[in-house]
Amino acid sequence: MRELNQMTITDATKESFSNRTNERFAFLIDKLIEHLHDYAREVNLTHAEWMTALNFLYDCGKISTPERHEFILLSDVLGLSALVDMINTQGGGTPGSNLGPFYLDNAPKFALGKHLADGREGVVILVNGQVRNTMGQPIKGAVIDTWQADGEGMYPIQDPRQDKWDLRGIFQTDDQGRYYYTTVLPKSYTVPYDGPVGKLLTAADRHAWRTKHLHFILRAPGMRAITTEVFFKGDEYLDSDAVFGVRKSLIAEAKRVPKDANLEFDLEHRPDARVDFDFVLSPARA
Amino acid sequence: MRELNQMTITDATKESFSNRTNERFAFLIDKLIEHLHDYAREVNLTHAEWMTALNFLYDCGKISTPERHEFILLSDVLGLSALVDMINTQGGGTPGSNLGPFYLDNAPKFALGKHLADGREGVVILVNGQVRNTMGQPIKGAVIDTWQADGEGMYPIQDPRQDKWDLRGIFQTDDQGRYYYTTVLPKSYTVPYDGPVGKLLTAADRHAWRTKHLHFILRAPGMRAITTEVFFKGDEYLDSDAVFGVRKSLIAEAKRVPKDANLEFDLEHRPDARVDFDFVLSPARA
To answer: ipTM more than 0.95?
Structure first.
């Protein structure tokens, strides 16, 4: 028989995954085994550390529910989610950013100009811009799916007394590729830190704050869909967002709207400030 | 603010774990982030693959219980557990091997010569040998904690109708450093494959069989404790053990004992075969 040692075990493990019919699966597994083993060798992993890591994953599993995916949060704080967003951002288009845990499929559809935050406290902002392709041409009928935290940093879905569909909406761009609606300025909030990932952040002296943001998914026929976020200039957590979601090109500014200013949009609610942000979609891969 | 991209995000993530007072923790986290990010970049991880991996971990958490740690099993089939055993095996001593999920603390203590398998079907084996230090000197009073599957490949702890303390025992070596007891020859068994790890093995066309083995933990004052296994020459799964536990130096042979052979030990039960295996313990680190 073959003798296994610290070096040969890596090839032996790779070979044990003998199904080579799915090349991509084989490649993903091979590289996973290589990196996992390289890591253990490089740090000289002790039994106690190995057990701590496995029990950490066990605890992540324990606290997870269909509404709370602690492994996504772990991926977020380890910068992996952001890296996957970056890897899959197509050149020329608006960069992708975290989906986060609060997305709901099938949000209500609204006409442009809708106010998404009826009766809510906060600074009312006009969110508007144009959706274009990478040639600079406006995209008519692009679908904009948005969701956000309220002026207190809470998503309605987190509060059983609120309607989970609040502060969400799906819009379509007009003939000039424009979108516009009003809502309240969201507030920063912390990612859940009452679980194992929170303990990890605490041990590492890391805060759990997300810089304030609006979530968006954009879709248009023939174009690559993007999941992204828009951030706000001047926020204190821009440079230390707990999930590494920020890119420079995703930062917008909330500019005060003078009381007597003429606005070029037909709006349900007069805004206190306006946020201008254009999206660029790249073509879908053949 | 600093712009994050596919390369700079790795340093940014490392820096976010700002607690540098525990150097070992900082090193383990830094290397984890490096390997995790290198992996994602190297394989160009897609969102769908990333989500599949996170949901796989979620499912491992769901099926785990205090009696079933699916993450240990995952570590086992990925060769990580064996690698950690190898990394932590001290030169000159008997190699370590998998602890497995069936160990119980505080097994009953027996005098040498005890039969551990009263009333059980199977080939009765005499298990015996000497415990020595790396200078070749016998260690008197070394503690040998053993547990094993029965002749059907089942651990009593897996069967609610059986006594979980069956097929376990703690012995101490005699003045010559010798240990000896009888039991039944264990049978091969499969690791649990009704969960996510089983699905992974199935997808990879891998069997789930463990080659048959006896488990041991050895302890002696001033010596490094070892957790290891003894395997059996000729077993069909020696070269494809599902958890990569086998080392050449851990393979023993069950040799038939002639009916009229004189045995040098005082035994409760006459054996059909004998397994001779010596253990070597290295000094504990200062």
So the answer is: no
